[in-house]
Amino acid sequence: MGRAKIPRKSTNIDMTAMCDVAFLLLSFFILVAKFKPPDALAVITPTSVYTKVAPDANIILITMDKDGKVYFGISDKNTGEKKDIIDMVSTAKNLGLTDAEKKNFINNPAAYIGVPFSQVKSLLDKAPDQWKGIVMPGIPTQDSTNNELRDWIQAAVAAFQGEKMFIEIKGDNAAKYPAFSGVIWAMKRNDQLKFQLITSPMAAPPGSELDKIQAKTGSKTAE
């Protein structure tokens, strides 16, 4: 009598358990890995891409031009804080600003300070439409004995007390390090150790938040 033949079947290996082990090992290595600490020295690059849009409110903007002149400005949406800042500076430095001079600063959307305290009153005495032609010498930030930016930041910190304040630094690519060093010193004296650098934007990565916003607005670049 012939022996019955057992039909051959294809080999089928269940990989479910192996996949579970692989993902467990991957999760373990991610959790125990030590990431590289942030660099101690911030490097300013001429161009960059950032996937998040910078906030447009509660902003303190510090600008440095190619000659190293420093300017101080506040977000247009923070008129209340602008009033508090100019009031505190006028009182602390005995500037004697009138209500009309203060309004020239508060109500001017392009208002920024780029002069020493001794010239603030004469600057604010001019109408907002006259500011565009004014050549400002910049806020003194040369050294610790003559750094008036410290007082402007101090007034801003007091005005934004209880609220989130963002400090943005916008520097010309040709600006020298001493100007930037004076700005950092003024911030440190007010315990402001975090800031954002504004650079020339490049194309946003496809699918990023900035790319989606640019697609909706039709813009190709943004700060």
Q: How many H/I helical runs?
A: 7
Kindly provide the radius of gyration, computed on alpha-carbon positions and rounded to a whole number of angstroms: 28 Å
The percent of residues in helical segments reads 25-40%
Query: Which residues form runs of ≥5 with pLDDT under 50?
Result: 36-46
- The SSE string, one letter per element, is HEEEHHEHEEHEHEEH
Largest beta sheet: strand ordering: 4-3-2-7-8
> Which strand-content bin applies to the residues?
5-15%
The end-to-end distance, rounded to whole angstroms, is 89 Å
Number of extended strands: 9
Sheet having the most strands: 5 strands, mixed
Basic shape: elongated
User: Which structural category fits the helices and strands?
Assistant: alpha/beta
Mean pLDDT over the residues: 78
Name the descriptors.
elongated, 7 helices, two-stranded parallel ribbon, single chain, alpha/beta
